[in-house]
Amino acid sequence: MDIPFLLIAGEAYINDERLPARIIHVTTYRLFISPTESSYSSIDCPIRSIDSIVMKDDIYLNIQCKHIRSFRLKFVTKNQRDYWFRKLDDMIVLPTYLDDLFAIKFASDIRKDEHSYHDLFNVELIRLQLDTCPWRLTKINENYELCTSYPKYCVVPSIITDEEISEAAEFRSYKRFPTIVWRHANGAIIARASQPEVSWLLRRSKEDEKMIQAIINACNGETNSNRLLILHLGTRDAAIENYAKYYPDCDVKFMNLPDIHATRRSARMLSAVNAAQDKNYYSQLASTQWLQYLLALIKAASCVVANVNKHNRSVLVHCSNG
């Protein structure tokens, strides 16, 4: 049988079986359901995205994914259903050894490619014109010792030393210091960071203030806008509003996005609503607030796009943990 999808690096085909109106395919990476009738669409589901598998009646399996998606498989017989339940249920259990994770096999195959991570990173730097003054590449996090959640290489203003980056990182939550992640053709940039740990004592960091001003100065040589927009994704915070006075060429805007706890709670509610398929679906969907949260996220993204693309204005995006 022809495989109806392309295998990715490290992926191996295991087996397949025909179901009513569909064919089920399993690899070391995914569960793929291909239709045999034009009225159905295919389902491509990574094994690690499956949260639970529940047997229903005699011939059904209900599959719930971690990203809220759910679907049902119909089998010909109970024995066939039981076989696939055992097989898939075993596959979603985390392996005892790290090397048995598909992600490790994928990474191993990718590393065989002639292009290294550093080479690809340099290609992107050149494309975005971040490879020359007023920007530079810092390797201060090459061993993930400064910030465990940041990449090996980061783009910063060329006049900022690694020592100053290290000091500025101490002022930011989880040491997520300001770094450039994208540059528009008009010279405006998008930077990221976690919020400063100012607290009610209004703690300051000269190195952090210098770093932000260096970003502004670097952009001023390429754009007409001389004020940086600090987009705080969380709710209005008096401490953050007060600290802004130490950054004279910046404006702070609050986007009032929900925190991670509210988002997770909403996601759990949405998952339950989708699985239940109740006749009051739309009212229950509204009660999850998921669509309101999506709207707030789209508004925040639109704000960034408008400032960078239309107004040639650079934006620093941060929230409580960056």
Describe what this molecule looks like in 3D:
The protein is of the alpha+beta class and 322 residues long. The protein has two domains: 13-109, Pleckstrin-homology domain (PH domain)/Phosphotyrosine-binding domain (PTB) (PH-domain like, Roll); 156-259 and 291-319, Protein-Tyrosine Phosphatase, Chain A (Alpha-Beta Complex), CATH 3.90.190. It is built from nine helices and 14 strands. It has helices at residues 78-91, 102-111, 117-128, 162-170, 206-220, 238-243, 260-276, 281-288, 290-310; strands at residues 13-19, 22-27, 30-35, 43-46, 50-56, 60-65, 70-74, 135-138, 154-157, 179-183, 189-194, 228-232, 250-254, 315-319. Strands 10-11-14-12-13 form a five-stranded mixed sheet, with helices on one face. Strand 10 and strand 11 (189-194) form a beta hairpin. Helix 7 (260-276) packs antiparallel against helix 8. It is globular and about 70 Å long. The two termini are 47 Å apart. The mean pLDDT is 90.
